[in-house]
Every structure is written in structure tokens, then in C-alpha cells.
Design a protein that fits this description.
With 285 residues, the chain is α/β, with parallel strands linked by helices. It has a domain of 189 residues: 3-Layer(aba) Sandwich (Rossmann fold), CATH 3.40.50.720. The strands form 3 sheets. The chain has a 6-stranded parallel beta sheet, sandwiched between helices. Strands 10-7-11 form a 3-stranded mixed beta sheet. The chain has a two-stranded parallel ribbon with strand order 6-8.
């Protein structure tokens, strides 16, 4: 049995849609209202009520807006650190594997090459440091864990979807308030496929997931505009933007996915191919 915690968020909704067809009758998706990770006592009760009990929990619950780490650090810590620790302990008690989704934001963005799983996190931003604390909670509280780091989830719709923001900027003829940086996009179908592979194996530690290749946000905007038939791409005028590494962060938000390729003996689609397929699927809907 698979439990998705944080199923009300964008990534949680994506994984629920992608996994329910692959694991029929074996998936339970819980929103924050149904399973609040910051409430330890209630969390234990809710997990004990599941029948059969989950054998693996995927933690998608997080406050993912870096600005919240500065404006409301207590809330960000509660969700991104304490909540992770609570879930890890609850999983350990029932002998449940924990897969915790984390972020490239744990890095400072100054490395000249893609980040490896073995690179020490060096973020100077409040958000990046808190996400790293969440990783440590997962590792320390449950030996049977795997941390999945993502750079930029594209597609799926909803708030904070870069493709929705690009399409909106094109429609309104406005610029994007983004600073340009190099990222590793991952698209819903490929994320679901990769996580399904992870679920079928007992890998532990840290794993980076992304589609093939990397791009600057300006390249992503230009390719999206081209595929949508626009005559020009929206301009990037600076600002936090997606895959933010903080005010003093560098321009590199690229993750090396070599470990996933080595372990799984497969590569996810090149990002341009995945983008075209994602936009085509949206048009059909």
C-alpha cells in the first residue's frame, strides 16, 4: 500500500494522477486536512486507521514558496522540518518506507556543473536551509528512507506551474518576473514514471530526478511560446521566479541524474520532447 501525504499540493496531485493507474487499489492520497503532519498525535491515529497499513509513504507536503521562509519562518519550519520528522517517526513505528520529496534549493547555485547527490548542501537562503533540515529529519528518524530532489516541476496546472505562468504572460503580453537560471525540468508523466520505478526498488539515500538535459528559464519560455504558436517569447525581467535559490543564490539549479540512470538502466525523455507532449496533452483536455 502506498500513502501520498500532501496530496492537495501541486506535486501531490500530479503523483496521485500518475500513480493511481499504475497501482490500482493500492494508493491512498491524503490532503493536509485529512492528515496534518504537524500534528503528531493525530498523524499517528490517522496512519493507524489505514487498513491495510501503508508499506511506503511519499511525502509531498511542503510550504514550497521561498518567500514564506522569510515571512513566516515558524510555519515553514513546522511544515518542512517538524512535519517531515513526525511522518518519518510514524513510518518507522509501523515499518513503512519513507520517500521524501526535496528540492534543488538545498544548494547555493554557484557550482559550475550539475549537482550530484554527494555534493554538500550549501544554501545560504532560509528556505534552502529549512529544506535541508527536512532532509536530515527524514534520514535521522527513519533508516528506511529515500530523498528525491527535484529542480523544476513543469506542467500539471495550478498555481506555481511555470507553464501556466508562461502561457499567462503570452496571453496578456507581459514580461515574466523571473531571473534567468539554468534548471532541470521534470514533467508529470516522467515524474510519475520515475517514482513508479523507485517504488519497485529498495533504493535508499538521495536520488536526483529530472528529464534529460537542462535549460535556462529563458529557453523554457521560448520553447513553450514556440509550441503554443506565439510569435515571440515573454521577456524575463528579473525576480525570484521558479527554482529560486535565494537572494544570494547562483544561477545553477541543475541536478545530475546519473545515479538514477545507473540504478534503473533508463533515461527519462529529453526535456523538449516532454514539454511538447505535456502541452499536447493539455490541448487535448
Amino acid at each position: 500500500m502506498i500513502l501520498i501525504a500532501g496530496a492537495g499540493g501541486r506535486v501531490g496531485r500530479i503523483l496521485e494522477r500518475q500513480l493511481e493507474a499504475r497501482f490500482p487499489d493500492r494508493l491512498v492520497a491524503a490532503t493536509r486536512e485529512e492528515m496534518d503532519l504537524t500534528d503528531q498525535a493525530r498523524l499517528v491515529l490517522e496512519m493507524e486507521r489505514l487498513d491495510p497499513p501503508p508499506t511506503v509513504a511519499i511525502n509531498c507536503a511542503a510550504l514550497s514558496d521561498p518567500r514564506q521562509a522569510e515571512a513566516a519562518p515558524e510555519a515553514c519550519l513546522a511544515s518542512n522540518r517538524e512535519g517531515v520528522g513526525n511522518l518519518a517517526r510514524a513510518c518507522r513505528e509501523i515499518r513503512c518506507r519513507l520517500i521524501h520529496l526535496s528540492s534543488v534549493a538545498v544548494f547555493g547555485g554557484r557550482k559550475p556543473s550539475p549537482y550530484l547527490e554527494s555534493d554538500p548542501p550549501d544554501s545560504s537562503s532560509p528556505y534552502g536551509r529549512i529544506r535541508r533540515l527536512g532532509e536530515q529529519e527524514a534520514a535521522e528518524e527513519n533508516p528506511d528512507h529515500l530523498i528525491l530532489r527535484l529542480s523544476l516541476v513543469c506542467g500539471g496546472g495550478g498555481a506555481m506551474d511555470p507553464l501556466v505562468e508562461i502561457a499567462g504572460a503570452l496571453e496578456e503580453g507581459k514580461a515574466l518576473p523571473w531571473a534567468d537560471r539554468r534548471v532541470s525540468p521534470v514533467f508529470p508523466e516522467d515524474l510519475g514514471s520515475a517514482v513508479a520505478t523507485v517504488l519497485k526498488n529498495d533504493w535508499r539515500g538521495i536520488l536526483h530526478l529530472a528529464n534529460g538535459g537542462s535549460c535556462f528559464l529563458s529557453e523554457l519560455a521560448a520553447e513553450t511560446a514556440r509550441l503554443l504558436g506565439a510569435s515571440s517569447a515573454p521577456e524575463l525581467v528579473g525576480g525570484q521566479g521558479p527554482a529560486s535559490l535565494g537572494e544570494n543564490g547562483g544561477p545553477n539549479a541543475v541536478l545530475d541524474t546519473g545515479r538514477f540512470v545507473s540504478l534503473s538502466d533508463r533515461r527519462l525523455r529529453e526535456w523538449r520532447v516532454a514539454l511538447a507532449a505535456s502541452l499536447g496533452a493539455c490541448a487535448e483536455e
